Fold these 2 entries.
Entry 1:
Amino acid sequence: MGLSHYFTSFGVRSYEIGRFGIISTGTLLRYLEHVATEASAAAGFPRSWYDEQNSAWVVRQMTLEVDQPIILTDELAFDTWPSQYARIQAYREYLVSRLSDGFPLARAHAHWVYVGRQRGLPIRLPADIAQQAIPDPQTVTFPALPLITPLAGDLPSFYQRLIARRYEADIIGHMNNTIYSDWLEEAIHVALDELPAEMIQAQSETAQGRHAFLQRGVIDYMKQALPGDALEIITTLLGAYVRGLAWSQTIRREDSQELIARAETYWSWLA
């Protein structure tokens, strides 16, 4: 049996395009979750197998790089493979390119943890997963992180409150990891709208529209959020880099301040 690379392709749907003419970070992450699910089924572990085991995979960390925003006319090609297994976890790689010419659009590296559905706690990975879905130890490579330049004055932070909704929950009953990205992206755009004009004026001409896309980011998922949870997002500007602005974000429970997720991201101005 060969290494477990899984290849698939599909086009962007019209309803997935946002008001800036590109897909959101959350939509891209949903694509990656979809192809990972298909890859698992192709290796002999469809959804019915996980139902029988009463188990699931949850993401603990996602590293993402977008080389070029994905638009409506893009037909996408995906290559994904497991790169490593451990006792309760696995690492998966993703490459996204344009189907017509192979132009690279995005890449990602995910840390997944195998859990029991009833309690949501890590459980031992069955041996036959690694035997049937053979890992390829080659990992996706990322460019060096851009240099962050401090901005003059006090760097602002922005606060948002939200309630986790029932329709955002997944099959396990908690918020799907891609929903966190939707929340974080919304908070970034709110922050961009509220940034003082002098901070925007110091950027390139494309910054004047205050439209940006996630170029590079790492999201850590610490705890689960459930429907009805009152949450707060703190978005803090770290500084500027050659293509845009760098940010730090946290999602916490409003009452206890328990950390739910955190992100360090670079948002490039959208031309």
Entry 2:
Amino acid sequence: MPIILILLALVVVIGLYVMVTYNGLVALRNKIDNAWAQIDVQLKRRYDLIPNLVETVKGYAAHERETLDAVVKARNLAMAATGPHEQAQAENMISGALKSLFALSEAYPDLKANQSFLNLQEELTGTEGRIAYARQYYNDTVVRFNTRIQSFPANVIASQFKFDEREYFDVDEADRGPVAVDFGRPPAVDLGAGDPPPPPADPPAPPAAT
């Protein structure tokens, strides 16, 4: 009889552990999905701002076709991206294209002073900050989830119930800050590799005839 009670108690303990672990993994998975949804909201906000920015720049620098096309192409690729890893790569392209676009303002004083351009730049900077905050929360939650399903004995339960590792949403180190540009300082201009080399020395005079 005591052996039966011990076995029943053991079954109850194991069952409780499985239930608690399973529910904890479900909660973490739902937090990850919710965190990704928050990122998606901010990304879509940025995608909506970009066409207005491009049109504003066109009014002052329509001939800067290559830079404008790069921004539009990066936006289209980002909108078609699937999954955190692919999305992160696309967002890196957008950040780089936007920085090039903002740098154009230094060559166009009227554009730099345009209120619509300044407002869009400010909105994009704020959106970048919110994306960075949401990305940090998402990645922190993914770390907790992935660590949990890799640890014994939770990994046994995770395997049985098909809990798979989730991808991180990582961006390049250079793109971690908000997209911004210093409107008060002109860009550096590369004038070449430095001062030109000195002219060659005159050839030596021929020896005097003896």
